[in-house]
Each structure stands twice: as C-alpha cells, then as structure tokens.
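Many introductory courses stop at the sequence. We go one step further.
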Amino acid sequence: MEMPELTVFQNALTPMMHTEMAEAHTDLVSYYSSPMRMLVAANHAYFDTFPDQEPGMYMLEWSFTPQGHEQLITWEEQVRWGVAWHRGIMGRYGKTEWALQAHRRLWQFPEFREMWESGGVGYAHSDDWEVQVMVHGRPHRMTMENWLMYNDTDAPIMRSRGRLYPLDD
C-alpha cells in the first residue's frame, strides 16, 4: 500500500474538519495520515503546544528530536511504544517506499536503533491516550481521543482531539 502525497490528505479534510479546528480554541485538534502518523493539519492550540511540529512530519521522528526529548516528560515510555508500533507498521508495509524512507530517517537516531533492536512490536493503542508534556515551561497531562476516519479518497486519516491539564495545580 503506497501512501498518497501530503496534499492528497490535506485535500481530503472536509469542511467539518476545518470547522472543528477553527472552533476548538483550547482543545488540541489534529489530523494525521494513517497508518504512518504524518501530521496533516492542526489547529492553533495544537501548534501553540507543539510549535516545532509541521504538516508532513512523522510524529515518531519528531519524538527523537531535541524538542521531543525536552517536551515529552514520559519520553521513554511514549517513544518505546512508538518504536514498537513502528516495528508493527514495518512488518505490514516495510516494502513500501514511504515506510522505508521513514525507517531510514529514524535509523539516524542511536536511541531509535537501541529500541528497535529490543524487538518490541505493537499494533494498536487505546482510543483514549494520555501523555505528560511540558508546555511553556509547565508540566501538563494531555489526554487524547483518537478516531480513524474514512473518506472517499485513498487517504485514511486519524483525527485526534486533546486537552491539557496542568500537573502542578
């Protein structure tokens, strides 16, 4: 299964999806390509929380950047799960060009190589997910609700809506 270009995913966003992003002022609303978790679009609250992310970025790859290390309080737990999930994706799509390119980019990170060599495999996570992140210098708990959305294109999209709760209150 080859993945369409980013613009195909962006063009597959419906008016309702754009409205949700525009109207959600405090919730973090984002859309990702599925299964590769490439950021397609997000609202202002999302980009205020994650200012260094941009459409077209593979989220696991972002996790290994200095910003990902700094922002993810539970980095080890989240990234280990992400690498196990990536291994599952490679098991199914590993001969596709998009999967091979993503894997080559991840291989540049020594921590990725170490986690990859541990052999963990993951295929799914819960629809409701919680992560601890630093936002503007303060620790927060971020809950996320994820839904896989289908449309009449070949662009499967994952919708994520999250909310931040300060940990130090």
